[in-house]
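In response to reviewer comment 3 from the previous cycle, which asked for concrete evidence that the modeling workflow produces usable outputs, we include below a single protein chain processed end to end. The sequence was submitted unchanged, and the resulting structure tokens are shown without manual editing.
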Amino acid sequence: MDRPKLNRLSPEVVNQIAAGEVIERPASVLKELLDNSIDAKATKIVVKVKNGGLDMIEVSDNGTGIPSENLPEVFDAHTTSKIKSIEDLNSLISMGFRGEALSSITSVSKVLIQSKYIEEDVAYEISYGEVGKSEIKKCAREEGTLVRVEDLFYNIPARKKYLKSAQTEYRKIYELISKYLLAYPNIHFVAEKDGKRVLDMPAIKDATPGDITRERASEIFPEGESLDIFYDGSGVTIKGLSAHPSSHKAKSSKQVIFVNHRAITDRGIIRAVYEGYSRFLPFGEKISFVLGIDIRPDLVDVNVHPRKEEVRFENAFRVYSAVEEAVRHTLEKALSFNNTHTEDFQEHNPVSSFDNIRQSFANSKPVSTPRPYSEIKFNNKASSVRDSLLFSQEVLQNTFSSKPPEFVSHVEEKETSSVRNIFQIFNKYIVIEFEDEHLWIMDQHAVAERINFEKLTNRETKSNVQNLLVPQEIKLTKEQILFVEEQKEFFEEMGFAFNTKGTGIDILTTPVEFMFDIQAMFNEIFELSDSPMILKQNFDKLKQDILATIACHLSVRSGQKLDRSEMLSMYKELSECKNEYSCPHGRPAIWKMSLSDIDKNFERTY
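The workflow returned the following structure tokens.
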């Protein structure tokens, strides 16, 4: 047997191996070149590709350029002006910095660079090909830098055969450019495909890097159906746009995340966004969003991925909590009307308390409860909201405007109105006509769920309970018994006092409002997770889902006949809720339209 012998790899082979980490496809080349143009303070970048980037990728900018004495060295491995020591990585905010991008690119392609440094009168060029590096020479160029990359992987056929079709590679390039468009609205981007201009996006006036603008996000949020997201605190600033909950989809939506203007992927941030939506969106549904997160460079490591597509936060919980809070605050502010015009109701009709009419719902059948968002698995579970009230495009545009001034004025107008008429249809929906020529349609079960959910959430005392003459036995497994014992204080706060025994628990008290099958309610609680152990681990998040389950069992059902006073009472209590838009499971609770919306639908102009 031959003894193994160590071989020292040549610089060429070392560069080709490094290129395998950085250069995966034509879009990888483009990313490195765009980063360098942005670092050079370019305000206009022109991208040209041929044959999906397989034949040629060219990036031209009007940035500061490269000093002529540096041109011969930009191809050398680990040469960079961005850092001098390892400590510099802690404060680095530039895009390209690894010092190996151009070296890696030149090891697997043919490259030409032309550049005019801002402090020099003449431009220079240099090239790199099969025979190595050329001599530097003068060229005709007025400003900035041009880098042309041709014949990608010409010297590594094994790598080239794994590339996709030219159309697929071009799609990857376009997706990449789209992300830069969002992150840098201050830059004029132009793109050409096979000699034809396909994109010309001028810079947006007064925009700065990191601003997420509606103009640049128009492809993600058609017709302006988006909400502004903002957060600033604990060293984290968040700006972005997110879709209105009613525009959710069963299939994957566009979700773009930037950290310090760099596009990344991070499942923790995606999860935090959906946690913020958890009371506004049916489980399993997807929404589009664009988030720009700015964080102090020393609190994030951007050097954990060869292509800088992932980052590592020093305190990930702080970032995820900030994202969740920012999204939830945006939704609560934009979708809650907080109309408290009790005088209008009492002036026209005496209103009985909603708490006093729940007895009439005692024989109604509970509905199933969607699984909680705290257990998101990003599946394609069908949406229950499709079976509930549908929101028309026109209503969304008029009622939930993405422009805050219009939204506020609409709310103020509603606060000065009063109820003209109220009635029930199909024993399922409540229709309310207002004096100001607006119309509401409420899903009676969703509204009742929202009212009960907020009352349970704000419950501060244990006094509002009723003692059962005979304790009710609830059969549970041993794991389930351990869980309810550990969370006994929480259940008692909700009004459920109990004693444990071998086969389950004996319920001693219930909330005074509760008149349904308690066994069914506990069964649904344990269906919120695959096991009691997971329930225990995620209990802080799952509390909201348990409250939603209890609220569901307390609520009026579809098919239940209501009288006028009951309907007015529901409307009054809904108007006092923090979130009037949806039930605690995320289904819409109200549908609003104006007389002008109805006239428009019938093409009526008089």
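The two ends are 98 Å apart (CA to CA). We consider this sufficient to address the reviewer's concern, and the full set will be provided in the supplementary archive.
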